[in-house]
Design goal:
homodimer, 221 residues, alpha/beta, 7-stranded parallel β-sheet, 8 helices, 7 strands, 41% helix
Chain lengths: 221, 221
């Protein structure tokens, strides 16, 4: 297959995915559900952030837990008394609309105020695929290093919020240049909101929850 | 395109890649070059590990630095006085043989004792592609959490060594279950070597360098 034909095919696949995502997003909104897509590296703290948000958000919540394999994370979510659906991608490195629709169907018509998708731990591929969420956010943990903003620019460009996690590690990481991170990230994405959080200490979590509530109100208005 | 046809195409692409990798590996060995492919999440500490290895390995060394974008890492390698070639994948989430061959050509026929490929920060896609290396290793940093072994099993299966990095963080991560990690990883891959390291304190680095020297001698014998 030549390069031009490959690019055409990729464009068609992504366009079909975006069309399905738009339809799904509209249907969710009509049912009063606000969906957030949570992305970040393996170990950035996605599941732990969710556990910290549950107690700060009012309303019914469900989580679609996407993993290449295993049910480790969905078990943690269920243990917190929150509805979780496991989405195993069987080796696929990102989540597409077909997978989201299938996972959502497993919620059997129940309506939720909050729906979270915990995406595959990956700073690359998930950025390319619209998953039907109203809001996309990314996590960057302090131990990963601030320079990821130079290496994975697409992820920073497509998200509404950058959530810096594990900020209790900052004293151990004097090289973590928060100013350089924020400067570069807002250059890539001028409207980006930045939250500096620690699920351990609770820092920044109330602000994040308040912002999500605002975003929900705006999206469902 | 139906699913069967898609799988056939994927198989063909991977097979062509493996054939090219075998030829490349053989050609390197005949020139006395031992190549190691270093994989791991964003921020697992790949570049820092390399900087710690240079002083412990005798001989001429070169690094192919693969990144989606930016030259942050290759600049660090060059600052250490080591030859580095930047391989920008322009959005692609893994490294394939064509890219390796192109990067290697930029070394302009010079021979090296050690060639390292620092792969894209990603625990998923790079595991699927043979890059022509004699040895594949993966990093898992303590702050990422030990449960990654359940979620990204292919990476643990295809590597010869698991290098646990940032072990100076262990006191801060009492939940990091090293025994469970090693048990599961060696179930996936009975021959897996495990090194527990810290580039900061130097722990485990001499053992890792000694093992790489053994592997080089065996591969080039």
């Amino acid at each position: 297959m030549d390069e031009v034909r490959k690019l055409e095919l990729k464009h068609q696949v992504l366009q079909a995915n975006t069309d399905a995502a738009d339809a799904f997003r509209g249907a969710l909104a009509r049912r009063g559900t606000f969906m957030t897509d949570i992305m970040g590296s393996p170990g950035a703290g996605k599941t732990t952030l969710l556990l910290g948000l549950f107690e700060r958000l009012q309303g019914e919540t469900a989580v679609i837990e996407a993993d290449i394999e295993s049910t480790v994370d969905s078990e943690k979510i269920k243990a917190a008394g929150v509805t979780a659906v496991q989405l195993e991608t069987n080796g696929v490195c990102h989540v597409e609309m077909g997978m989201v629709e299938q996972a959502h169907a497993a919620l059997a018509g129940r309506d939720f105020d909050w729906l979270f998708l915990e995406n595959i731990g990956n700073l690359v591929c998930p950025a390319e695929f619209d998953t039907g969420a109203h809001c996309r956010v990314m996590l960057l943990s302090v131990p990963e290093g601030y320079d990821k903003v130079y290496k994975y620019p697409l992820m920073f460009s497509v998200c509404e919020a950058l959530i810096v996690t594990k900020c209790d590690y900052l004293p151990l990481n004097p090289d973590f240049d928060m100013d350089a991170l924020v400067e570069r990230a807002t250059l890539l994405n001028p409207d980006l909101r930045v939250f500096v959080t620690s699920a351990r200490t609770g820092e920044g979590m109330d602000e994040l929850a308040a912002w999500l509530k605002e975003r929900r109100s705006a999206a469902l208005a």
